[in-house]
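Weekly puzzle thread! Below is a chain. First person to post its structure in token form gets bragging rights.
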Amino acid sequence: MAPLKGRYGQFMERNFHSAEELAAALRAGEVTSAELTDEAIERIEREDKALNAICVPDFDRARAAAHEADQARARGEDRPLLGIPVTVKECYNVAGLPTTWGMPQHRDFLPAEDAVQVSRLKTAGAVILGKTNVPLGLQGLQSSNPVYGTTNNPWNHDRTPGGSSGGSSAALAAGFGALSIGSDIGGSLRTPAHFCGVYGHKPTLGLVANRGMVAPPSPALPVDLDLAVVGPMARTARDLALLLDVMAGPDPLTYGVAHELALPPARHERLSDFRVLILEDHPFIPTGSAVRAGVNRVADALADGGAQVERHSALLPDLAEAATLYTQLLFSGSVARFPVEAYEQLQTRATGLSADDQSLDASRLRGMVLSHRDWLEVNNRRELHRHGWRQFFAEFDAVVCPVTPTPAFPHDHNPDLLACRLDIDGVEYPFFDQLVWAGLATMPGLPATAMPAGLSAEGLPVGVQVIGPMFEDRTPLKLAELLEERIGGFQAPIRCSSNVS
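Winning reply:
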């Protein structure tokens, strides 16, 4: 297989090319979808034994879809993803494939129809190679479960690729397909992108239909989720935008097939026109040195490119209150199916909390036992934060901040996540406290693009997130694209790459 010149001029194996580059090659007749698909399958069969990113391969149907894509192109058809090999997170329903969410009791659950986003991928012409691994029940920032085992980070197999979209991020970093789709409530798109050196976009809440991304054996209904979204993952910022265009729009079961959603264009096209706030510190958890360096690398690139860069703003909503609200909202739904006895024990523990205890541990416990009355008050405070963000984005275009405080951490499969600890430069902190950075965008429902920002001293990827105004997803995506051109973007892991420059 001859290598091709990639986006930045280096010669790379075709499996690492962007969807945009592959689409151009397909349109030019330089390659067929059948060839791309065979190359991707060959690579997965050769490399995935060490990674375990593709938990449910679907190679026979992928080859058939590639053949159909080539026939369609021969007839003159041209769709956004026609003939492009992609993967899908395990939690999406794909007719004919199991959906388990890593839960052994659902090992044999086979949905009868595709999730709405799987349908949109197929309509756009994508070739689905298979499904990618997830944590048990999608809970946690690692990707390991009793059904499919553990996924390793392509940069260091002793480290996690993140979760819950860790299989997708590992697959992208290893060259297993050009695109993937994931989901995000606690950074589940952004953290794996950060840990594996790829791109992920958490869309504005409600922008992308989620039907069919549901725990088995629940029916696939057009439910409006609180906090949670589904979104694109890729190896370039432009590919994120390409895939978001395929995914965006409400569920036709709710709004009708003809309903279309037009997103406003990016606020600016030049780096020098952007007004950006840089955040590197949080009141609840320190930022590790490697991530701090990544944030400042991006800040320097912005300043060098002429952007207006600020480090402080009185308009920024209170970070401590935002983290508390996010924690309460996130955990309020986590106990809905707990046995009565277990729930009553939580209520007793929450009653015993001191009013002065404003720790995140206390917020998690209070969130788990919120009454409907109390939840409405928390939700009202969220609306005040949304109003604050609207005022903020009248003066700024984006926020650049960490995704998590550290690069990818070593595998830790303690089932008691509340007991886990995160090592930040030699000091341990409660594992769940790192979610405050993800929650900064999740709680108010803002769009956020995770992008690579270089490597740590240990040679691990470091990413940042670019947060933008609600329903202005194209603005953080454009800023990520402009930064990619300035500081570089995805790098193939040394153990996975076939660079020959």
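Puzzle host: Confirmed. Bonus trivia for everyone else. The radius of gyration is 22 Å.
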